[in-house]
Amino acid sequence: MGYSLRFRAAAIVLLGSMAVSSWSAVPRAAAEPASGKSAAVKPWDARKRLLEQVSAASGVPWTSLAAVDQYERTINTARKRKASAPLAGVYYTEEEWFGALNPDHSDPSARTIALFGGAGTDGSGDGLADPANDLDVLSSRVRQLTRFGTGADNWKIGVAGVYGSERAVERIAQFEKIYNHFQKLDLNDHAFPVPLKANYSYRGTWGASRGWGGHRMHEGTDIFAGYGVPARSTCYGIVEVMGWNNYGGWRIGIRDVNNLYHYFAHLSGFAKPLKPGDLVKPGQVIGWVGSSGYGKPGTSGKFPPHLHYGIYRDNGTKEWSFDPYPMLRQWEKQERTKGLKVDAVKP
Ligand SMILES: [Zn+2]
Q1: Strand blocks (E) in the chain
Q2: pLDDT tens by residue, 67-87
Q3: Domain boundaries in the chain?
């Protein structure tokens, strides 16, 4: 009941400030993370509400905001740094926020910061540009991103301007597609790459000097299984790469919203309707185990059939692989005890 009252108050403030500027401020209290009285609010819900508020104020769809916010979160993880505010993933350095020549990094007055050309603005309507306030940081970022307008092309130019690379533009567009398709933020369920009822075996072979299929440094885990055992997406994501590779044979690469690239190699074939740009979910069949690779397109049978599964993290400028074995063990165990939480899609 307190919730609906507060929500109504928020709507009134929102309407009131719309008269002043099309880029309205939203009240701070409404976006604060769960605490005390509103402890029932889950973090995903709080995040969704924050995105919806900034969406209402800026006219940018919440899925686009989610993509940007999540992109920054993944870059923070890769670079081992913390987001500026508790809920949003947005990251500002003090110089960016307060302005490079601003001598006082403790004065969050929106007016002073604007004077020094800092990126910090007030999104919550209290006159302060507080780098620890979720509405302030997310609103400030969206202002930078929509400098040229909110249309699709202008948004892309804005994204390239803020993040400085085509790679970031591509990632954020992928995340947008994922959020648009699944319409939720919580996309962290996983599945083991082959059905648990199949006959398979694997062990930690990370860094072995040479794996099956000619990988120079073995970047992944080989899951041995018979020809035709289904290979399944391990995550919610988007098909980024699909086709032939001289080492990997018929292979598929899937990007998830954690900016991880899941690589499946040596397949005997792909699940038929699947194509690059398609959205997939955990447990969805994407192809079948085989022994393709190590030669020109179509080469097969140079080693025993297995699924090569690799995982790569993007830090915004480069990608590197890490050992998927511990995650595979975890996903296998989860699926064994709890079952697959999402519906497996048949090809
Ligand atoms: Zn391998």
Answers
A1: 200-202, 221-225, 230-232, 237-245, 249-255, 260-270, 279-280, 285-289, 306-314, 319-322
A2: 999 999 999 999 999 999 999
A3: 2-182, 200-338
